[in-house]
Amino acid sequence: MKKEYDxxxxxxxxxxxxxxxxxxxxxxxxxxxxxxxxxxxxxxxIVRGRFEFELTLHELCQMGPKGTGEVRKLLDELGTDxxxxxMDEAFHTINTHPTHGFDVEMPIGSKAFVDEMEKEVPGSRPxxxxxxxxxxxxxxxxxxxxxxxxxxxxxxxxxxxxxxMKMAAVPADEMxxxxxxxxxxxxxxxxxxxxxxxxxxxxxxVVYSFMVYTYLTRKPYIARKRSFEIVLALEQRIRDxxxxxxxxxxxxxxxxxNNQAKGVELTDGxxxxxDRIISNIMPTVAFGKMIDPKEVPVRDRKLCNxxxxxxxxFVIYLGLDASADELGIRGYDTFVRETADTHILFExxxxxxSHRKIFNxxxxxxxxxxxxxxxxxxxxxxxxxxxxxxxxxxEENYFRIKDQIVEETIDYxxxxxxxxxxxxxxELVTASxxxxxxxxxxxxxxxxxxxxxxxxxxxxxxxxxxxxxxTVKGLRFCGGHGTQMDGYSQAYLSGREVARYTLxxxxxxx
Length: 510
Ligand SMILES: Cc1cc2nc3c(=O)[nH]c(=O)nc-3n(C[C@H](O)[C@H](O)[C@H](O)COP(=O)(O)OP(=O)(O)OC[C@H]3O[C@@H](n4cnc5c(N)ncnc54)[C@H](O)[C@@H]3O)c2cc1C
Known about the structure:
Helix content is 39%, strand content 19%. It is α/β, with parallel strands linked by helices.
């Protein structure tokens, strides 16, 4: 059959959109296939009554003003037109522990952060200043790596960044203790832990600190018109560059023969030949359900099986008939924890029964005051489950379980934030792991890709991305499950990275 396309991208999530846009910008004939009638996957918004709720985005990392952060540069290079909003706060943490609890609002800017920490934890300044200096070095090293597109001269890397390489192998919690941070300062600093799918005893110090430092120095960002604005901007650029997009088009099978991608088969039986496929669908699903088992290389199956799924989420969207000021809601993004021990929190998040008082909530009106009609506001709650917490759910008990989680979360919120919202709920929407599993098509409703323990963190993944990734010729993977780890920014970066590898493959005839 005649091959009409240079590359087929399966899935129009953040990663798939970025990969398709990059390939199209480079003049390749791109076909992007999406099973839903709209693009975005996790990214988007829903309208209920007077409210337009952000579906998922609390904050984007690695942005900064024009020409600065890696993600900002990427989106600008693609020519996307988005009205960005930068946040002036890092986070608000409410730790409800009866004896070691705290309630802190941390600013952005590394100096302001250290100053605030000194106020909260007197005597923490020297260790915090050392930490920020190390963070600066980590950010420089990662920028240097990115300048070589993650394939740097290895000897130079060992000489120039030997401290960075050593720290990459140390868990965040251990390194922070070695730096002599007082316990409370370490606990506040570790507030972001669940953005990374494993707790601070198992995530690399370099990975954790890089995330914190980029938020502090580049600021967290969101799009003024919700994340769907970013999605539509990317979609527009794909079309401008001549790419083709088909919605309501579900791929049933990725055709592999003799370790070579051959094309895709759609659910209506249509076969589209193409020897380059970029899958925005995670490898566990592609290899497990979409590729003939006989054609899955043993090595690829083993790599999939060695990885652990990251968390799934339960989301509650509330539209309230009073403003954030009237209700007394502080801060844009708040973490509520019942203890500061991230390992205990990770364990508690495994089941519904043990998942208590562990969630984050964001009030969009605290970032964009007119995000909803005057005299109203919106809150999004996110509870993460670190294992398959909905495995026992049946059709009969599903709604009761959802109601119970909503009731408990509102109770915990009112108790922790000391804010009454129950009588002000005008709209209430929930999305459970089951919703996520059905909508984006991940196992257990996973929304954070693969977990990032030490052996499978950002550095090992990016450094082996091109040569040692999955081995089927012509098939590459991008998205929150990719080399750059989970999240919006990482999905965009992974889309570009995989597009670049695919372009190189094409050039070198691989
Ligand atoms: C509640 C929540 C809050 C979050 N908050 C943040 C945050 O504040 N900051 C942040 O950086 N990240 C956040 N994330 C994570 C972030 O949303 C994801 O990591 C990222 O969007 C994943 O993008 P992806 O490219 O992997 O695509 P996905 O979003 O997984 O999309 C995959 C796409 O593939 C399509 N698809 C699936 N199967 C098929 C098929 N067979 N044929 C065709 N198409 C198919 C799907 O419909 C979907 O459009 C959050 C996630 C959730 C759920």
